[in-house]
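As a warm-up, study this chain.
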Amino acid sequence: MQIKCEERYREALAHAEETKNPTLRQCLDKLEKWADKDNGELILTKDRSPLSFLFEIRDADGNTTINGGLIYHGRPDLSRSITFDPTIGWQTHT
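Now compare it with the structure written out below.
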């Protein structure tokens, strides 16, 4: 996994640990499995929404295979993203 936003990553990990919310780790594990299927790499960059990320998975040849958001839905939900499963925590959006 390549993290291009270390400060945001540390902030999100700390929040997940502090609130005992497992969804960040669950989403990261899922995205890493998707990347592994293509012998690829997961890349995280900072999203405009609090505690959230943009993600990109590239295959072994460097081609983007999927991208989207790893979005934090809190209370209040400041993500400006639509979710059909309103829960507090992180969700992947593609």
